[in-house]
């Protein structure tokens, strides 16, 4: 029996200028995880908890 693949995460890898998210979407960026809120645009990169992002555990 082949080894099972790791379960896929529900987080999207954030790419500045590319990734479009909806409120409540989970993203990963620079090894950290964030939940989108207040409709972040494609250039609102998540770096810490702020108006657009809540930092969460991965």
Automatic annotation (TrEMBL):
<keyword id="KW-0378">Hydrolase</keyword>
<dbReference type="GO" id="GO:0008843">
    <property type="term" value="F:endochitinase activity"/>
</dbReference>
<feature type="domain" description="Chitin-binding type-3">
    <location>
        <begin position="11"/>
        <end position="56"/>
    </location>
</feature>
<dbReference type="GO" id="GO:0005975">
    <property type="term" value="P:carbohydrate metabolic process"/>
</dbReference>
<keyword id="KW-0326">Glycosidase</keyword>
<protein>
    <submittedName>
        <fullName>Putative chitinase</fullName>
        <ecNumber>3.2.1.14</ecNumber>
    </submittedName>
</protein>
<dbReference type="GO" id="GO:0030246">
    <property type="term" value="F:carbohydrate binding"/>
</dbReference>
<dbReference type="GO" id="GO:0005576">
    <property type="term" value="C:extracellular region"/>
</dbReference>
<dbReference type="InterPro" id="IPR003610">
    <property type="entry name" value="CBM5/12"/>
</dbReference>
